[in-house]
């Protein structure tokens, strides 16, 4: 496999063949015009994504295969986007990430989490694959967390770092089973009920506050509870 950047000039050598040997090149089984050859070398100028594919070089008229490579055109990764959040306090938090733009070639991600001076294990989720979980070492810790995410592909690498306090990333999931019912014999009233998010593990020790807003469809202004 040969990885090259979008916009690069690419030279391919026909295996161990001499520069002046008579050869034929194909891309995905289709003959390549001789104007792209310099002797037996294949020259591709300013490559783009459409030129990714299987390139083969054959010896003269005998069509003996001498060289073959899979060309993959892409870009180095840009700085990844990283987010950490605790939706099940006080159990721990998760971090998720993505790239702001595609690279068109495989990327690998490595995440490190440091709590003070301690390295912590971020357990990868199977689904979604770009997420991992951290278990809190201790409650009400005043020691900051530092999370560094590094992305690497065959054309380059990049990273981003977050530093935060435990309490700063606590954000519950929304309430569940929200139901609005008319109140009998009172057409101007609604009864609204809901349940705690099922992901919130200990609502007795860490109670949640709820904020409700409502408006008739014909009005723009919200009422708040």
Which features would summarize this protein structure in a list?
single chain; about 220 residues; mainly beta; Immunoglobulin-like; 3 domains; 4-stranded antiparallel sheet; about 0% helix; Ciliary neurotrophic factor receptor subunit alpha; repeat; FN3_dom; signal; interleukin-11 receptor activity
Q: What does this protein structure show overall?
A:
By secondary structure, this protein is an all-beta fold. The protein folds into 3 domains: about 1-75, Immunoglobulin-like (Sandwich), CATH 2.60.40; about 80-170, Sandwich (Immunoglobulin-like); about 175-225, no CATH class. About 0% of the residues lie in helices and about 50% in strands. The chain has no helices and 20 strands. It has strands spanning about 1-5, 10, 25, 30, 35-40, 40-45, 55-60, 65-75, 80-85, 90-100, 110-115, 120, 125, 130-135, 145-155, 155-165, 175-185, 185-195, 215, 225. The protein has a 5-stranded mixed beta sheet with strand order 1-8-7-3-4, with no helix packed on it. Strands 9-10-14-13 form a 4-stranded antiparallel beta sheet, with no helix packed on it. The protein has a 4-stranded antiparallel beta sheet with strand order 12-11-15-16, with no helix packed on it. It is elongated, with a radius of gyration of 29 Å. About 15% of the residues are buried.
């Amino acid at each position: 496999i040969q990885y090259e950047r979008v916009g690069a000039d690419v030279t391919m050598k026909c295996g161990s063949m001499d520069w002046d040997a008579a050869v034929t090149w194909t891309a995905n089984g289709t003959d390549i015009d001789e104007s792209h050859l310099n002797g037996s070398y294949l020259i591709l100028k300013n490559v783009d994504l459409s030129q990714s594919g299987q390139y083969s070089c054959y010896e003269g008229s005998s069509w003996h295969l001498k060289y073959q490579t899979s060309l993959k055109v892409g870009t180095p990764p840009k700085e990844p986007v990283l987010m950490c959040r605790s939706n099940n306090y006080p159990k721990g938090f998760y971090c998720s990430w993505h790239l702001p733009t595609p690279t068109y070639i495989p990327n690998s991600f490595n995440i490190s989490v440091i709590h003070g001076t301690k390295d912590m294990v971020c357990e990868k989720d199977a689904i979604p694959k770009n997420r991992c979980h951290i278990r809190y070492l201790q409650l009400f810790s005043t020691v900051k967390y530092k999370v560094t995410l590094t992305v690497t592909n065959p054309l380059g690498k990049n990273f981003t770092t977050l530093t935060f306090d435990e309490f700063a990333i606590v954000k519950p999931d929304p309430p569940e089973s929200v139901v609005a019912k008319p109140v009998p014999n009172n057409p101007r009233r609604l009864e609204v009920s809901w349940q705690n998010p099922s992901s919130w593990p200990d609502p007795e020790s860490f109670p949640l506050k709820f904020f409700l807003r409502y408006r008739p469809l014909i009005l723009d202004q919200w009422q708040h509870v």
